[in-house]
Structure formats: structure tokens, C-alpha cells
Amino acid sequence: MKYMMLIYADPAREPVYGTPEFEKMMSGYFALSEKLAADGVMLAGEGLKEAETAKALRVRGGKVETMDGPFAETKEHLGGFYLIDVPDLDTALGYAAQIPSAEYGTVEVRPVMDYPDAG
């Protein structure tokens, strides 16, 4: 089953770029990505640029509206994701616990919808 692991963190609590703490965090991410690939479960994974670079879009009454930044005002911002294919939720949670940002942020683990073939 496919699971999306969404990585949220408060930028104020993240290690500062260029510090030993930042390097340690990134080493943890690189090691996890290598483990997911070696275990044959990784489908995709990426970090995201800062929330301030985002655009939110919605359509209301046929009109497209765009806004700068994240749609919801929260302290924790979506900073990246992993998409994995594992047998069950417990396995997905085991991998999610290895995400470095889980130490100061939140990792949401959500099953991916499996749509039956339309054809």
C-alpha cells in the first residue's frame, strides 16, 4: 500500500543552514533516503522551498484566485514529503519515525487512495 509521509516543521525550530546541527539533520535525511531506496519502498521524496515562495490557488464562481504564501496560517509548514509503498501502516510509521524533522516537527502519514481501474 502506498503512504505519503508529509513533513511539517516550525521554521523557527529547524537547525540553521550551515551549522553542524543542520549538517547532522541533512545527513539523517540522506541516510533515510538511501535506506528507503535499498529497502525497495521509496517511490518519491523531495524537500520543498520555504512557504513564502508558495502560491495558493482556488476557483470560486468560475474565477481563479491566487494568493501568496501558505493558505493556512500555522507555525508548522509543509517542508517535504516521502511517498513509499509498504505492506501496512505500522511499517510506514516505522519509517516515518526515522525522519529527522520528527524530533521537532510533525510527520503526517496518510494512505494514498487506490482507485479501481476505470478502463
Topology of this structure?
Blueprint: E1 2-9, H1 20-38, E2 42-47, E3 55-60, E4 63-68, E5 77-85, H2 89-96, E6 106-111
Antiparallel strand pairs: 1-5, 1-6, 2-5, 3-4
Report on this structure.
The protein has helices at 20-38, 89-96; strands spanning 2-9, 42-47, 55-60, 63-68, 77-85, 106-111. The protein has one domain: 2-Layer Sandwich (Alpha-Beta Plaits), CATH 3.30.70. Strands 2-5-1-6 form a four-stranded antiparallel β-sheet, with helices on one face. With 119 residues, it is α+β, with helices and mostly antiparallel strands. Strand 3 (55-60) and strand 4 form a beta hairpin. Helix content is 23%, strand content 34%. Residues 1-114 form the YCII-related domain.
Provide a count of the helices.
Answer: 2
Q: List low-pLDDT spans.
A: none
Report the β-strand fraction as a percent range.
25-35%
The general outline is: flat
**Tally of discrete structural domains:** 1
